[in-house]
Design a protein that fits this description.
This protein is an alpha+beta fold and about 80 residues long. The chain has one helix at about 5-20, and strands spanning about 45, 55-60. It is found in: Secreted.
Length: about 80
């Protein structure tokens, strides 16, 4: 069950509303927040892929703040374990 007040869930809802009003062009990458069942951010966040190229990924805490030393680029490095969900 989604909790409407979670920070990730609010971010996701705003992205979905924007998509309803904008024309999506395949040349642009898209960031859709990756939320857990409580509405907080999952550890790994990624932008959409472009063709066969995976979008960049990074690690965040449960409030969506990037973690120091977070992987970038293709984001193959694992996110640190901890309480970020």
């Amino acid at each position: 069950m989604w909790i409407l007040g979670g920070p990730c869930r609010r971010h996701l809802d705003s992205v979905l509303q924007q998509l309803q009003t904008e024309v999506f062009r395949g040349a642009h990458t898209l960031y859709v927040p990756n939320c857990d069942h409580r509405g907080f951010y999952r550890k790994r966040q990624c932008r959409s892929s472009q063709g066969q190229r995976r979008g960049p990924c990074w690690c965040v805490d449960r409030m969506g703040q990037p973690l120091a030393g977070s992987p970038d680029g293709d984001g193959n490095a694992p996110c640190p374990s901890g309480s970020s969900g």
